[in-house]
TrEMBL record:
Annotated active site: P2 (schiff-base intermediate with dna), E3 (proton donor), K58 (proton donor), R267 (proton donor)
Gene: mutM
CDD domains, per the entry: EcFpg-like_N
Cofactor comment: Binds 1 zinc ion per subunit.
Native source organism of the sequence: Gluconobacter morbifer G707
InterPro entries referenced in this protein's UniProt entry, alphabetically: FPG_cat (IPR012319), FPG_Glyclase (IPR020629), FPG_N (IPR035937), H2TH_FPG (IPR015886), Ribosomal_uS13-like_H2TH (IPR010979), Znf_DNA_glyclase/AP_lyase (IPR000214), Znf_FPG/IleRS (IPR010663)
Protein's name in the database: Formamidopyrimidine-DNA glycosylase
Keywords from the UniProt entry: DNA damage, DNA repair, DNA-binding, Glycosidase, Hydrolase, Lyase, Metal-binding, Multifunctional enzyme, Zinc, Zinc-finger
Length: 280
């Protein structure tokens, strides 16, 4: 599933092409994805100018005049591909939603597994939407610091890897960037969250923020289905130090450590047992 850097990259491409433009056509090519498309999606979007974009966790919010917001989640394998309307080309397979603007911009939502979703919400009520209301803090928000992270982790017996994936605490983080952040801080993924010290928490916040910004600058990590809105792959996967490198030599400690993979809460975790010492 795309994580925060991938969703942010897609959102920025969508914004650059659609912000300030009037939507001229909305085509819904099937009744549902994970849930049914809103029946009034075309009515609420066609003929309206796109005012702004926002990302909340892994959701893309497109706000249009008239007080409506289209909320989009890419699911496991969804792609939002940008192009030009009116070109004599065959639409991609599994393209379920198409938006076009008066100036010729085209956005197609391609989702083979149909785990994504599209919904409409009053812009003034975005934060109350059932999928957004219980979400935690954005990791790139300035108010997330070591003290706040320590407060969020206090008393939690779950492993730190699992705690950082909890979207009710911090949003947008997934396997890739949590593994990379824990490695940079030398923290073993099985260490109980409550044992993270104030200094550890400060280091984690800095590592998470740095890694996310680096990944956004690189267009995200393309491992399976993810591509940027223009169809090109991201490149941050080439900078992974542990994720997906099981059995390979650690790039930090060399032959002293080999990248190991374990399963936590049904998900793969990658780490270096030499750089990230297992807790007693």
């Amino acid at each position: 599933m795309p994580e925060l850097p991938e969703v942010e990259t897609v959102m920025r491409g969508f914004r650059d092409a659609f912000e300030g433009q009037r939507i001229s056509r909305v085509s819904v090519n099937r009744p549902d994805l994970r849930w049914p498309f809103p029946l009034d999606l075309r009515e609420k979007l066609e003929g309206r100018t796109v005012l702004s974009f926002h990302r909340r966790a892994k959701y893309i919010l497109m706000r249009v005049e008239g007080g409506w917001t289209m909320m989009l989640h890419l699911g496991m394998s969804g792609r939002l591909l940008l192009g030009r309307a009116g070109q004599n080309t065959t639409p991609p397979r599994h393209e379920h939603l198409v938006l076009e603007t008066e100036n010729g911009a085209r956005a197609g939502l391609v989702d083979p597994r149909r785990f994504g979703m599209v919904d409409l919400v009053h812009t003034a009520e975005e934060t109350d939407h059932r999928l957004l209301a219980g979400l935690g803090i954005e990791p790139l928000e300035p108010r997330l610091d070591g003290a706040l992270l320590s407060e969020l982790l206090a008393g939690r017996r779950t492993p730190i890897k699992t705690a950082l994936l909890d979207q009710k605490l911090i949003v947008g983080l997934g396997n890739i960037y949590v593994c990379e952040a824990l490695f940079r801080c030398g923290i073993h993924p099985e260490r109980p969250a409550a044992t993270i010290t104030a200094q550890d928490a400060e280091n984690l916040v800095k590592a998470i923020r740095s890694i996310l910004n680096e990944a956004i600058a690189a267009g995200g990590s393309s491992l399976r289905d993810y591509v940027q809105a223009d169809g090109t792959k991201g490149s941050f996967q080439n900078l992974h130090l542990v994720y997906g490198r099981e059995g390979e030599t650690c790039l930090t400690c060399g032959e002293a450590g080999r990248i190991t993979r374990i399963t936590q809460a049904g998900r793969s975790t990658f780490f270096c047992p030499s750089c990230q010492i297992r807790p007693d």
